[in-house]
Write a structure and sequence with these properties.
heterodimer, A: alpha/beta, 43% helix, disordered N terminus, B: alpha/beta, Rossmann fold, 3 domains, six-stranded mixed β-sheet, 29% strand, transmembrane helix (chain A), transmembrane (chain A)
Chain lengths: 427, 430
Amino acid sequence: MTAPPTRTPAGVGSGVGSGSGVGTHSGAPTVRTTSGPVRGDGTTTRSRAARRWRRVGWVVALLALLGVVALILALVTSPGSKLPLAPDSTQPRGAKALAQVLEAQGVDVHYTRDADEAAQLAGPGTTLLVVPGLTWDSLDDDQLRALAATRADVALVAPDDATLAAFVPELDDAYGYDPLGAGPSCDDPDARAAGTVSDQGGGYVASGSSSDRTVTLCFPVDTADVGSYAVVQGATRVAVYDDARLFTNRDVAQAGNAALALRMLGRHHDLVWLLPDDRAQASGDAGPAAASVLPTWCWALLGWSLVVVLVLALWRGRRLGPLVPEDLPVVVRAAETTRGRARLYRAGRTRGHAAAGLRARTAQRLATRLGLPRGTEPVGLVTAVARATGRPAPDVHDLLYGPPPTTDDALLALARRLDDLESEVHP
Amino acid sequence: MVVTWRAVVLAAVLGIPVAVAADTAMTLLAVGVLVLVAVVDIALAASPRAVTLERVLPTSVRLTGTATSRLTLVNGSRRRLRGVVRDAWVPSAGAADTRHPVSVAPGDGTRLATTLTPTRRGDRLAGPVTIRSVGPLGVAGRQASIPLAGRLRVLPEFASRKHLPSRLARLRELDGRAAVQVRGEGTEFDSLRDYVVGDDVRSIDWRATARRSAVVVRTWRPERDRRVLVVLDTSRSSAARVGDQPRLDAGIEATLLLSALAAHAGDRVEVVAFDRTQRARVRGASGTRLLPAVAEALAPVAPVLVEADWTALAATVHGALSQRAFVVLVTAIDPAVVSAGLMPVLGGLAARHQVLVAAVSDPELAALGADLATGDDAYDAAAAARTDLERTAVAGLLRRTGAEVVEALPDDLAPRVADTYIALKAAGRL
């Protein structure tokens, strides 16, 4: 606290006495507040910064901790997609294990999600692997035609109907359910090398469409002419397997899965691994359109409006000083207990009790008005009231001392008649 | 740090180059300009903590009256202080306009007046003074809330003072000044004077007449210098709302009217506010100083949510009064509370003093069930009747101990208590 400056304007100190006693009780003189002149709130820039740090420091520390943890997690966990059957996915349903073994064996894996790119990459002397996308029919007819036209060897795993028809019209889906598990039962060297595979049924059957390609079915399901694994050998070789789990990280090591998968994909030095991107097809219609309709300045203005809104929020959000709290008086009404009692009467439908209360009060008021002494017998009261009102005594007696009402309407009628009776007796 | 509407306008205007250029560099440049202008403006604003503040208040104001809070501020910084100053008050202080735009040169000062129209009795406290100082561009500035103690004591309204002239007239009728000068109960010997035609022959003092050769009569006047003790119950039953104010406020009105009346009648008045301990006490004040003292003492008294300790109260009363006195207990007739607390001690009090129990009744209770329209109203009426019976019974029990009981609506309590006082005085029962 410093002393007030000496350049106090004239009148500030001397004129404070004027205007006093406005509505005061006894012309009370004005007084200064007990604290006297005050300068500043006793804080410095440093103390305010320290206080702010105490207040929000833990939030900042928590955010920093979260950031560090997130950073560590990001460094520790290997990057990679989480898509099923992606060659860079370490998830149980991914296929990184297979891809890594293939690369270790000298196969170049070209992973792509774009069917057109795959069609360009694939060619004679390469293997094209088409794995199912996330949705049904993730490749359209044009793309399938382009892919089938590449003269690459093809490996299909759990293909959908369109894919199967595009690559190997010689085969049809067979809905077998009971793998015989008796080995390959065919002459294909890959199948014989694998020996046995884990299989859940399904399989393929020769469709009988005319073709100059030879169809070999292995790992029979139900009967000998249905096979989980099919090889169609013509100018190019197409190998089809009906279960996508053949390639997954979780199942590739079971039975002869790895042998079959590696031999399917490792025939050539180059492997094109196509995992169709469903979104590319879906958003192909709307995506670029929305962005190109609006001119770029519009986007810039939209972004800038966020800044303007932020400044607006700062302007409107800062209060001119804190709210001043006040202790308020009790708001419960004095009649609340009586209201509660009325609700109890009502809830219990205690008409007799209610009627007794009404009658007792009327009797008391009438006795007071008629000047009857305390403890007057009912008979005396009835006689006095009957005389004062001119009503027949039995009526008055029935009103004041009759049987309790049995319905709400009767209670209401009684209350009204008691009111009438009271109004007829004047003190 | 604060920004003003001008900062918003500036940001909006900067949107034009951003939209024209439509690239990241221009956006960053615009943000930079915005921040730079704000920082420069803040740096050039006067420091709100270099301002010397002083608040001058009237000691007290009566409820429904108006007071002025005068805030003096002297700009101690080397820059001009522009901006807004808020003289904050609690809501019930009824501050009309707490925000004052200011522009004060360095070293100069200004005075700001805030009009207060309090809506509640008691001590109304001032909040901190907030100074928002903006820079010369008016885009951004600094703000600080400086704690500055302030208290405005709001005295009871004393609306019942309108009943005072009529009661004083009746008091004068009792007194000799209005030519009613007969001997009766409640009078005491005043003086001797010569007989004039028309005087009551019964008031001739024969002993004095024998000593002098002229006929001498005695004159009489109402008893004076009686002690009146008003006990204001501030326990939980006084906190309940009757009408739109706590029950206590109606009791304070009655206390003020009775004090004013008794002070004019020449009685010595003492006031105690009590629940478990003594909350306020006025003693030794008389004449014109009494009423301000009572109003001042009762202004900050608030109901306390505890049960009243009537035993301790009776001890206080016995300690305060050595001779017979008129003791007014301003309380509520709550059957459960009275039978447990007040009833046991009232007999002892009434034996030594003239006791008046003044209670505020609830207008809502009379209205409850007065309109018998549906079956539910009948139950309301029954509950009200039952409450009424219980209160009447308790009042009867209180009367049987020898105490007077006055039960009235909030607005009627003060005149009814005053009337009872005058009636007791006329009957010589004080």
